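Onboarding guide, step 5: your first structure request.
Type a short instruction followed by the sequence, for example:

Predict the 3D structure of this protein.
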Amino acid sequence: MIAFRHLCAYAALAGALASGCGAPHGQPPAGDPPMVPNQVSDFKVLFASNCAGCHGTDGKGGAAIALANPEYLAIVDDGTLRHVASTGIRGTSMPAFAQSAGGMLTDKQIDAIVGGIRNHWSKPNSLRGSIPPPYSSTESGDASRGSKVYATYCQSCHGIGDHDGRKASSVVDGSFLALLSNQELRTIVIVGRPELGAPDWRNDVPGQPMTAQDVSDVVAWLAAQRPQFPGQPYPTTQKSTGEIP
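The system replies with structure tokens like these:
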């Protein structure tokens, strides 16, 4: 019986060794050629590897704005999507992905991501006949008017000053504002964050959509709240430990 067990063990070992002899150690088996990174063209693979960490696995639910938002895709064109994906947004958490800007992706891969976002998540007639404020504006808003716009459209959810509101956190927190450009603020004001329950420009106040001027003004006001040196843990008047009064 013992001899039979040893014979079975030797047979199993021989089979395992034989099955591993098809390819040298550390190399993929024959018939499974390795994929060169700059030749990957599948949208799902590219999005999961480069975008999902911030924008969410399915294009929503991440820390950054949802790309799977038909309203967002209705106001932004492919040229803008391609430019942002390629060169990033300076001074924010959005990095550059194109090789020409120091990233890892080829122009074809950038195009695959942009095309995939559009094909997977845009919807015809998502605006239902509404005319949204323009995605960008060359005219700066008026911050003093923007404070009144904020009180009308935003304050009921986001609260007054740096205090959280009843339904949402403060949007004048210095660290939050430091992470977003004025264009990102404008985009969020227009299309909202539906995955977080934040409405778009049409639904902050029922029956009273925001005008293009309202959007520009409230963005100007929010930008004016951005501190010069965000993230300071103490008031500037407080003396540091060990400082002689």
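Each response can be followed by summary notes, for example: The domain at 40-121 is CATH 1.10.760.10 (Cytochrome Bc1 Complex; Chain D, domain 2).
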